[in-house]
Write a structure and sequence with these properties.
By secondary structure, this protein is of the alpha+beta class. The chain contains 6 helices and 4 strands; from the N terminus they run H-H-H-E-H-E-E-H-E-H. A hairpin with a 6-residue loop joins strand 2 and strand 3.
Amino acid sequence: MPKGMLDEIDHQILDILIENTRTPFTDIAKKLHISAGTVHVRVKKMEELGLIMGSSLILDYEKLGCSFVVYIGILLNKTNQINLVIERLVEIPNVTNVHISTGKFNLYCKIRTKNTSDAKNIIFQIDDIKGVDRTETMISLEESFNDKNRLMHQIFNEL
């Protein structure tokens, strides 16, 4: 993004939205001493630039009964099968993230399940996808932190 595209007010609006995407524009306006209409116009501008794409909802997976997290490295028979395998992975609701990668595996994915038994079934489903040569599984014992805010603040400070 070209330097100077966003000004200090835009940065302050983003800082507030990074902390809580559900903050009402009227609250942002009061805090920054500008009109809610100004906030709306600036957020709309950032959406049109593709800087803001929707908002996110943070779920408590433990309370929802899906706190067992597994990361799976997937080695394909041929790299030209990546898109076909991704299409199959998207069909499995427990697969929450998929990354095309370099190194030992062609793909890495994250799955969330209730327990080891459910994880085993999902892993077997992935192993059965045409084009998958083998998988390697890593169980997450605990998520120590999940913080996108620090990176966003650094990026905006560099703009």
